[in-house]
Amino acid sequence: MPYDIFISYSRRDNAGGRVTELKERIEADYRAFAGEDLTCFFDRDDIHGMDDWRHRILDGLRQSSLLLLVLSPTYIASPYCEWEVIEYLKYEHSRAAQGQGLAPVYFVEIPGPRSPDFPAQEAAWLAQVRRRNRFDLRPWHEEGAAALKRLDVRNRLEDLERTLHERLSKLRRLADASGNLPAHNPRFVGRELEMQHLHESAGLGRFGVLTALQGMGGLGKTALAIQYACAYADFYPGGRWLLGCAGRTRLAGVLRELDVDLGIQLTEDERRDDRRAAKRILAELETRAREGAAARAGEKVPPEPRALLLLDNVDDPSLLQPPESDLLTGKRWLHVLATTRIAPDALGHDPERQTLLTVDELPPEDALRLIESYQPGGRFPNAVERTAAAEIVRRLGGFTLAVEVVAVYLGECAGRVTCAALLQRLDHEGFQGVEGIAQSTKGGIRHVEKLLGATLGPTLDLLAPAESLVLAFAALLPPDSIPLPWLRTLVGEDYSDLTRDAAPGYSDPWLDLVNRLLGLRLLQIVDVDPQSQAPRLVRMHRLVGELVKQRRKWDQNRRRAELASHVKARSNALQTIWHEHQWEISPLIASAQDLLERHDPKAPTVVRSLCQWLPHFDSGRQSEPLLRACLAQLEERPSDDPLDLSVALSNLGWALQKLGRYQEAETHLRRALAIDEASTPPDEGALAVRCNQLESCLRFLGKIAEAEPFTRRALDLAERAFGATHRDTLTCLHNLACSLQDQGDLAAAEPLHRRALASREQALGPAHPDTLFSVNGLALLLLDAGRFTEAEPLLRRSMDGRRDAYGAVHPATANGVASYALGLMRLGRDQEADAYAREALAIWQQTQVPEDLRSGKAHWVLGVIAKHRGDLGQAITHLQQALRLLRLGNAEDHPWVKEVRDELDRATRMQ
To answer: Considering only CA atoms, which of 79, 64, 68 is closest in space to residue 129?
Structure first.
């Protein structure tokens, strides 16, 4: 049976019968006040089994108009009470309660935001409850019915009764509201923000401004519009009237079709003249709006004369433009809401006449709730099913129609098809699986079309050939990372005019094309260029991409090959400038992953180009899985180019170094070097890179003597293969300087550091990451030489430059901060050094990369400073950690290892 009120309370608060007593008093007073009974859901049974209780309570919640909360600290602490509120709030919009469904009663004092007991992170449901109008009946908890002797308590209780009556009366009026709308959807979920914006525009917006819900087909524009009209029926005493506009070009002809719903008998002249008929219809609506408002004039807040027209699925923009729209203008009592797939530019969007609100995918939580609402009992049977449903939602990308199709199908097949089984079907069948499910559902779907192809097809049919090709290439890219500059270059091979910038004063053809696709919501902006504010990264819904690939007659293999070549070209182009194009890195990684997953023959060469520099940026975290997948593909199907295998092994070794896994790295690097040495004739450039990477790994393993021959060999090979100022040659030069420095030969190392720094500044610029490595290397040498004052500005430059190049959270940034902390410690600036050392360790923790000898510097600084202030326990802890980390890449006779060991000995003796 339906209930007026669900009373939600903590059973501990009813131990003495106070809540029961309050409930009975509310029922009696309401009967006296309203002259009718108040039906309450009031569960007194103990909770024996969670499943039984949930089913019983869920039924009560879903059949109740309002939720009365008896608030207390025990209520807030109860997970059962929390669940009741959350379940009610899920469907508050579908009840048309519009933020007035909750009636919080303060039964016992609860902590407020200024109370010392107030939690740092208040639960979202409780924060929402606090925002509602509440009723203070705390005296009742202590005194029961005796509290009614107090006038203030009687007034509060009367206020509660009056509020309940007003809200219930409103909900009953909604059920009887005039109009021709279909029944509201009891499973409507989410869209709270869109509903709010819709009412602000359509209901409370400026006079004479039409509101249009715009977006792709199948995303729920009509459902949202109808739900708004149902939820705000009380706002429109003249009724809410739905008119189908698909294929219609004359507004008068649309309006005249309300004659039957309004019970109007048109005259002969009106039947012959659509415009006369439309004016008769509008006159009738105005009469109803004014009479409806007059009938409620005695209410506390009487409504104004209003009626709502809902123009559904407008597909001809002229319908919303003069002269057609002149029929609707100048009527203060008339509010107009339209739904359309038309792009804003085609709609002739004018902010003075129209407000456009876009409708996109359902948020994941709302989509999950929609599937759950069709499950037996309105809930998932277990966590496994909920997880499977969440993954279905992710695969469908929250596409409203697709989610609803799946939800209805699962409801119809309850007991026979589980969410987990359906997920397996979607894995196997993809987009066709969704279409097959749509065809097999028997009903329950409110959209005119259940098939996604039929829903989206008309929009795709409107596209020009160049627009279709842009979408085709976009469909081949990872859907959440689509770079527009890539699309422009690729489509420019067929449509060269799109690659040329427009002359001053002319509209840019490329931007016009992009804006049209954005307006149709076929693409959505993810990121913009900070200078020009033009979009540079967009996303495409997965199901749209699948449909585009299926519908288009094209040589997909040829286009995929063009795309792979472009991804490789961009990877090569970013080799020395990746730090200036970090927005492009994520699409490159995603594209390489896609190529590997499809076993594309071009995948190894793309990964080879990308991972020449990617470990600099990602410290090996994304490089490693890419390179391992690449190696697996190369070993299964060897490449024609033997360098593909050696480069993949070498780059994997480099990525593992960045992850601190040096022994694994050495194995792969030695294997790569052996392959290159066995090639005929040997590639000196490749050998130089392999020797250089192996040398670096050996140094980090503390094998200094073994590393130096590889360093000198690498530099000799690089100078012959590339020249003295090539980037790879300068890397070899920098590593030789570091090797000599590690061996204590500072005199030989310093000129090499300065030569590498000068050459890198000239070739790459002062802010390039390679240049900053040279700055840091020279600064650390000066620290070792005791030239602290010279070192400090270089360390500062390295730290600041790395923040700019790598971002705030990156191992390279942490290393720069730790080096600066070490320099400050040498200068005796302990307080500053301590702060920077702690910052460095905090950054390391956020990167989730294992600590290595670079973070050892920060522990060293913290240990020495703790010793200075007499905190020997902290000093020993940090110095032990520093010694362990510094030994990872340095011999026992390295100056840093010796110094930290001596500091640790002194701290231990002092303890």
So the answer is: 68
